Amino acid sequence: MKLKKSVKRILILAIILIIVGVGFIVYESLSPKDVKKATVENEIKKYGYTLKSTRSAKYKEMFQELKDILDKDKVDEEKYLRQVSKMFVLDFYTLDDKLANTDVGGIDFVHTNAKTNFLEKAEDTVYKYVESDIYGNRDQDLPEVTNVTVDNIETIEYTIGTDFIDDNAYQVEVSITYKEDMDYPTKATLIFVHEDNKLSLVEVK
User: Percent of the chain, pLDDT > 90?
Assistant: First the structure.
């Protein structure tokens, strides 16, 4: 009698172990194994610009071009302005390479004092409905910018509050082309001011 009870206990224990083992195998097969992370792939330290590993091939190419422009002994400010204008628009309005709605593009080019408001506004508007893709399984149609054209550049005077005036600020008008028309802006006006050694974005219209 005792032997039979012992056998039953062993069988029950074996069944429980099998169920737990099978459950673990199923869980492992269904669970995402790789979490996508954005690491810094390149940087321009003097200007505080970083290149995330998740960015598109086109943007990475443009980042290297910007690095070459800024590496000169005497920086051509118009080339610099045109490059950061195109890079900001490409990175900001391309959403399909972003990991989440908090992964806002172009933030490196925004003025230090404007970054907090810029991020809040972007997350509540353009990036509001971007779903998480940290596991690489997002099934959502999102815009991809394929080309940015600088249409016009004007020198303007720009005032921030009562303490800051840049009488050599820039207003840049651009046209935006997408891989697929998804009703995102095809025109934008950017305003850049001088911040220490760089040009910084203060307004997007």
Answer: 78
